[in-house]
Amino acid sequence: MMKFFNAILLFFSVILAAQTKSEVYKIKYDKFENGKKTGGNTEIYVYNQMVFLSKPTDNIQQYIDLKNNYNVSTIKDGNTVFKKIIPFDSLPKPKFDNDTQIILGYKCKHARFSYFSNTIDVWFTEQTTVKGTPNSSYLPNKNALVLQLVFNGNYALTASAVNKENKYIPQLNYDDKTQEVNASEFEEIAINSRYKVVKIFDNEILNFDPNRIIPKESELETGKVYHFSKGSVVLKKIKMTPELKNSAAVFVKLRCMSNGDAYDRTGSVFIIPSKKPGETTSLLDAYLYGIEKLPVYRDKKNSQYQGIVKENEYSPPIEILSFFTPFGVNYFNDKRKINNYNWAKDVVYKEEVSSLIPTDEDEIWIGVFIGNYDSGGHKISLELDCYPEMSKNDIVSKNNYIAPLFSTVNTLEMSGQNYGSLFANDTLKVNFEITADVSNLQLLYTTTGHGGWDGGDEFVPRMNKILIDGKEMFKIIPWRTDCATYRLSNPASGNFPDGLSSSDLSRSNWCPGTLTPPYIIPLPTLSKGKHLLEVVIEQGPDYGSSSNHWNISGVLVGQSKSK
């Protein structure tokens, strides 16, 4: 009898050992596009009923837990690891048919998934010990090994080998104590981890405050916020980080809301270029000591315009974002309630500015201007978002060529700087010299027309022309017809008897609550040497004491061929 029990115990020990012993399998998939092998491949590992889909160095680790019937994704943010769990029953559901094919000697069945307007054909076998899929969203059942995925009929992953792995045991980077987040929280963490945010301003007020004290130049510090021009300008000197200098793309992001001002106002985000050899004045000098520091441009009527063009001793600012505040968003939301009008809480402007980032500087002054005479004014936050190259093999050191030529945007309006109204009687002329070898040379030209009465240039299309060395290089009638799109950002906009609102009206290249991107003018034949640029605008006549004016800026950009 004892021998019988010993035999039974030995039998169950063998069975238990067979059930608990786990082997590592590696499945290799080749990549194909339109039936042609691309040379790339992906590998997954299966161990102890876990499918490991990621490389150990990947920031996001993905797993399929076949034992517990869910997918797990993890990400490390700072010193904390977060995990997301997606049960199998919440994944896309396939449709099955009777089609079969042979892959790696295994008979494969066919399933088709439809997800986010994409069609995914899956070929899987149930004849193998190992189970899994290279994509956690597309597993027909937990008894399947997917040997081919085909996306929209042209991109495919096809298994080329299924082998036991004797030298490598994959490891989990989470456990039951790992902090769990939901899918939307995980996606936010994942997206934010992929790029670098350089914070500039946080909830700064731009208003009219005639008692605002101007700081002393000797007290200016890097990283500190300063207000100028009676509160309508905020400035900060920042360090040029490696991300700012060498990212694949840099975007400026501005968040704005009313803090009491009901009107649509001109706004600008700009960089004050460092003084070049021979230059004695910058826009910063005017903020510190007054507009008298700026060189004066005179039109044919001898009217004065301070600091609007490149001079031997001065460079105008580099405008990186032209924007217009909406009519009173946020502050007036509860003061102008209309049924079924769900007012926005703020307005976010975001634009790529990669070519306008001075990569040869160690520090830069960056500022925001909103022209207004309201004590409450506007509240803004500003950041620069730096996006890396998709591949580390693509990383190159950038050498941006940036030459600001003109800007009639009067960011010192509250200090007496004149509007750009010279075009009614004159042409803006700029003498400049290209001293470097530059590739992909372009002029970024931003233009908006103003004159806010019926018949003013704000509401009348006007021709703009750019000439260089007497040759017409560009002409356009800058005009926006889409302003009604942004009605819900403009609660304080006046409503007319015909059903329209003021913010709906078409305008000269701007709308309340939007940004105005620059026109890109290629200049491939412009050589080194001295040149003359002219801006011609068919500005309309003044109306009584009111005058038309144009906010324009022009910056030459490209890549310097040598440092």
Structure description:
This protein is mostly beta strands and 563 residues long. The chain is 7% helix and 42% strand. The chain is built from four helices and 32 strands. The strands form six sheets. A twelve-stranded mixed beta sheet has the order 7-8-9-10-11-1-2-3-4-5-6-12, covered by helices on one side. Strands 14-15-22-17-20-29 form a six-stranded antiparallel beta sheet, with helices on one face. The longest helix has 19 residues, at 2-20. The model is unreliable at 1-20 (pLDDT under 50).
Primary descriptors:
mainly beta; 563 residues; disordered N terminus
Task: List the total number of helices.
Answer: 4
Alpha-beta content class:
mainly beta
Give Rg in angstroms: 31 Å
Task: State the separation between the terminal residues, measured CA to CA.
Answer: 92 Å
How much of the sequence is in beta strands? 35-45%
Shape descriptor reads elongated
Regions with pLDDT < 50 over 5+ consecutive residues? 1-20
Assembly annotation = single chain
Q: Which strand order spans the largest sheet, edge to edge or round the barrel?
A: 7-8-9-10-11-1-2-3-4-5-6-12
Q: Estimate the helix proportion, in percent.
A: under 10%
**Strand element count:** 32
Give the integer mean of the pLDDT values: 94
Q: Please summarize the sheet with the most strands.
A: 12 strands, mixed
Fold blueprint:
Blueprint: H1 2-20, E1 24-33, E2 36-47, E3 50-52, E4 60-65, E5 70-77, E6 80-87, E7 95-103, E8 106-115, E9 118-125, E10 145-151, E11 155-165, E12 179-180, H2 183-193, E13 196-206, E14 225-228, E15 233-239, H3 242-246, E16 249-258, E17 266-272, H4 283-289, E18 296-298, E19 304-306, E20 318-324, E21 347-352, E22 363-370, E23 378-387, E24 400-407, E25 428-434, E26 438-450, E27 464-468, E28 471-476, E29 515-516, E30 519-522, E31 529-537, E32 549-560
